[in-house]
Batch of 4 targets.
Target 1
Amino acid sequence: MRSSIFFAFFAKFLYNFSMAASKTRLSARFVARRARQAYKIATLGSHSALQILKGARDEGFGTICVATSDRVSLYKRFKFIDNIYEIPKFSHFPKIENKLIADSAIIIPHGSFVAYLGIEKNKKMKVAYFGNKKVLDWEADRLKQREWMQKAHVPVPRRFSKHSKINRPVIVKSYGASGGHGYFFAKNQKEFEVRIKNFRARDFIIQEYVIGVPLYIHYFYSPLSKTLEILSIDKRYETNVDSLGRIPSQNQQGLGIEPSFVVVGNSPLALRESLLVEAFAMGERVVATSKDLFAGGIWGPFCLETIITPQQKFSVIEISCRIVAGTNLFINGSPYASLYYNKEVSTGRRIAIEIKEAIRTGKLKKILN
Ligand code: ATP
């Protein structure tokens, strides 16, 4: 509420300012620059903060990093960060909210926002927040995600709701799993029955294990221009599943090696061009369907986590509804981003471009929560 009053007040100020500017023949560019200087881009010091704040600075915004004490020294190294607000723990974030509001800060959420603050604290945030918070509930629940993808006619791995129906290799995922932890693999029903006994999670889903290449597509949807861009693509490097091939299978026998999916890094990937047609179409259907499912739908960055089968079909295993860590590979832009922009545009910078455009056209409210 306080932030919306603030924005109403600020919009009026900008309007008056632009009127004055036109009277005194100040250029529109000058007005836009002043407006940009009035807002600051802020985020938590973690995940993709460097990319986000570098992109914000490249687009002319002031920048704020909210960092825990142990990370202040890291963020101090970078000149594109104007202010560092130190907090003892991420959970103390609400305590500095009023300061951020007073700074006219716009928060850019990333993966650590949900991981460290939880959904409820994200929803309660009063400071201006880039993106639609309504997406949080759809993203958090694996079954709702699945419903969203299916309504969008996006192929998803088969799900087994009854153990007795398992007729192929499966991956079992707990609801709170992240970064590849909280999973197990079973090659058939018999193996599943043995493994499930030691699995601690109460809520989990049993999914067909899709054999193919995992590929993460980084999209950006602009509610201002109503266009979808693919900004970059990565593939994850996961231990030990990506290294099992280093030991021939006959040598693995008897070692009792279990596949695990813990992420250790990401590498860039250029997709076979013919597959881009479906990659764009899937993203567009996901955006269109989201508008039917919740008011405003999804906007800004999101990622479809896919596996491509030998038949060159996508299977979508998850959607992340914000900037993902794999975009950090592309702080200097990517082969895809350079198809739209004649400058180095990362996902972080693309967010700043959207905010700048919203300020210029007086549509900031449309992209903030
Ligand atoms: P994050 O939240 O960081 O994206 P997560 O733990 O939710 O991670 P997922 O992306 O769901 O992770 O899966 C982790 C890894 O497990 C994937 O990168 C992929 O290697 C593997 N995986 C997940 N689901 C499947 C599936 N249905 N078939 C084959 N492999 C899968």
Target 2
Amino acid sequence: MSGNREHFGGRAAVIMAMAGSAIGLGNIWRFPYMTGEYGGAAFILIYIACSLVLSLPIFLSEAVIGRRTHANAIGAMKQLAPRSGWMALGYLSVITPIVIASYYCIVGGWSIEYFFKSFTLDFGEFSPSGWKALAFDTLFLALSCGIVALGVKGGIEKFSKMSIPVLFLLIVIILVYSVNMPGARAGIDYLVKPDLSKVTGKTFAFALGQSFYSLSLGMGIIITYSSYVRKEENLVVSGVGTALSDLLFAILAGFAIMPAVFSAGIKPSAGPGLIFETLPVIFAGMGANAPWVSSVVSALFFLTVTVAAMTSSVSVIEVGVAYLVEEKNIARKKACLIVFLVTWLLGLVSVFSIKLFGMVDAFTSNFLLTLGAIMVVLFVGWKMKRDDVRDEITNGGTKHAGLFPVIYFLIRYVAPIAVLVIFISNLIL
Ligand code: PHE
């Protein structure tokens, strides 16, 4: 099977695809708000520290599993720990993404809807559930599956390579507009003023949880994407490159959104409310003398959200598709159709009730992802042979060999404890 497996084209392709998965709604609707609420510049520093010390080792653990085996998440565990309890990690890694895709695509659908609404600026009331939401959800999911059907290189890699530069360009255009709005200063202050009084134990838990979600960890995505990474690529560089792009985009999104929010005198919020309720009001109100300006800025913004969400949704869908293709010998296009149908059916749970939508979101991001991440670090840190892990992370001892003991220590001791703390605090908070 591994003989005719596809591979990403090179270092840039690997980072673009992984950054595509990482950059998404988490950067746009959660990061800016969390930064403002939990200490501004102080939060950003804590976030960077959490990403380096904890998320990166988890990322590398998943990358080790994927690249070592060159197989889908379940196939990988079959190779590394056949018929053991660890197979649960493989199954979890394929189930979680499908659950996530089922509601993530609904948000993608809202973004497409709002892109079209931008032209008339007639946003009306935000109606997240119902038949219209289902229609746009179906469209978004179908487009995502269509890209995955084109293959790892011809679909995912090509789409990510095209989209990531465009996303950065778009968010910078919106940022320039936003920071020049009257009263924008307050929004900038909200993001950068270090406020240590807002830093508590909770800040660390939130920073870590966010960095986790943002890097798409704990759900088999990095296992699957890394299985398409050639042996000569450097996993540490891929991880750092992905984390930096993700962080940069989150910060740019903050400066694109918050100055506009404050300029309009609106209180910032997080989640769907921020981009589908607050921002449309601002867009609609800002171009009083030239409505086309509002339309253009709004359309560019929702285009950004749609594309950012789609580079993430393809990564979630690929996990299940890779499994069906390799373990069940199903042709890629047919596998995409199956994943489309399963995800679509599951989405029916969330698309008619915003309450269920919220529950599925909380259950996956607070529970399934953390569970997946704990199992990954325990597996790589305690079950796999140290030499095998070292071999993958250092390319046979040729790259970052001096750094390996530090990385390994983080994987073995620090990451499991930290993630366990998050896991428990998610259950009780
Ligand atoms: N990393 C994505 C984001 O920041 C989140 C994501 C979750 C991506 C689940 C894929 C799957 O939006």
Target 3
Amino acid sequence: HDDAPVVLQATDVVKSFKGLKALAGVSLTVRRAEIRGLVGPNGSGKTTLFNVLSGIHPPTSGTVEVLGTRSTTTPSYRLSLRGVARTFQNLRLFSLLSVRENVMMGVDRTKSRWSWRYIIRPISVLRADGRMRREADEILERYGLLSLADAVPSELSYGAQRRVEIARAMATKPKLLLLDEPAAGLNGDEVNQLKAIVNDIRATGVTVIIIEHNMGLVMSMCDRVTVLSTGKVIADGLPEDVGQSPEVIEAYLGD
Ligand code: ADP
């Protein structure tokens, strides 16, 4: 995979919050159709890195390039048009909308040029769009959610809600998918289902970066692993090599 095109290149990214360096010079290269694990103790900067990569926070210094285009200060709605999608550690589904409408919001995002349009576009307009509805239903079917399309998220199991979040992110047709602790709160069967979903997503050429706390899961799921500790990359490589690194073992024992 070492000759696959680079999808994400972060160089010396620093993010400070009132003097606290949440990221203290992080560099990262991720290639096409790779599944990359991002691990590290609590407070090591994983979520902050996702926030920078997805345009939620501009970095204090350093650069980010997505698909060869500099995106260091590109806001998240524009990055989503460029092919970056993410899910959140705490589910962020629209609670008053049905599962189908949640996914339609993702489909709509591929067409919206402006964030305000995305925000104010009335749901009644969305509901009346037959083509968008069909597109959403195809995606729901792919993720085993079609029978739940008319339910609101709170009527679903937690695992199914997590799947809706992934389905909505995939509806934006991303090239880079950022998953923030997608396995948190899932049971064993749901974790296996998640692994299959992530593999299917990768098989379509999408690059996936996954924040995950469970090292065992990362080892079995990811092609390469990046380990953060106090805002720095302390290891980066194949899961088996990273798992044996003394720095990594020490960082985890101190957690
Ligand atoms: P992780 O996801 O690895 O647990 P975070 O990226 O959430 O780590 O946090 C890294 C550090 O940055 C922590 O010390 C956290 O308190 C701090 N931090 C994160 N976001 C903010 C923010 N918006 N304001 C101030 N400090 C923050």
Target 4
Amino acid sequence: ESAEKGGYEHFMLKEIHEQPKAVQDTIGAYVHEGAIDFSETGLSDEIFAGLKRVYIVACGSAYHVGIAGRYVMESLAGIPVEVDLASEFRYRDPILEPDSLVVVISQSGETADSLAALRLAKEKGHPVLGVVNVVGSSIARESDYILYTYAGPEISVATTKAYSTQLIAMYLLAVQAAKIKGKIDDERYAGLLAEMGTLPEKIQKTLDDKERIQWFASKYANAKDIFFIGRGIDYAISMEGSLKMKEISYIHSEAYAAGELKHGTISLVEDGILVVGVLTQSALFEKTLSNMVEVKSRGAYLMGLTTYGNYNIEDTADFSVYVPKTDEYFTTSLAIVPLQLMGYYVSVAKGLDVDKPRNLAKSVTVE
Ligand code: G6P
């Protein structure tokens, strides 16, 4: 097993470091000579041209990919997107409109609820696109269209590299839909693809800063509660950051839409509690910052996660983490990396079984 870990202490750390390659491989599978080529998936230009609505269905981290994907697809391609937890979708008798596509995201392709959601959509006569990592899995076999992610085998229960490749799948779908629907011109299309191509090296740059995160994680390893706050895409990032933290470190953590804090959660903020503010979206920066000021005045200790250049975060945050700038639609791919590392290092500091957290399974094939 130690050989399989390639010199890393845990599979999770190895897989975190494999993200530049996994992202590169997934982009490389579908972007050829400066254009998206979906021929391998079965998706045609006609499908995108006629697409009126997208329903994304998934569980766990794949659901968080769906939330991030919704912001990108709605804003870039102008297509309304609904995102559902598969376990909810399958029992709520969903109304699926014509000319819609159901997108089921799953690393394993075997998650029971996601598979049941797929079958329900098909029963209702709706085409399903599977975004799947494991070749030949049930969801891959039963989907009408299949967009494989190229993360390679993922061993650690807490997903990292598969999540990152699923994000790329969402970006590619959004950019392609935007182009075919005439929402972006050729220049913007080329610019987005070029920017996507820089993500592997920018993820690598983020990984190179890991010692600072390790230091901070060891300081907060005994925290009882952690809150993650953000708006828009930053809320989607917060959800995944919070899940990474709780699943492997056993620290209670929650993600909140920053604007919702004042409707209840702020009553939980007390002296010394750690609040992580995610601020990668320039239009929402000041809004989330003001929420951070609110929790700070109630005694919270603040970590701010933003992009290089936003150094005024240091006037408010007690500890700041920066990721490289990219197109704001793609920031999830970079900002998630320090949060994965933070969950990992807290778990290690507590001496927990990082790769096999208690009560959790890599692939949940029962309801
Ligand atoms: C489990 C895993 C998660 C994963 C979820 C959905 O809970 O621990 O990492 O996000 O299942 O799995 P899937 O294989 O459908 O992506």
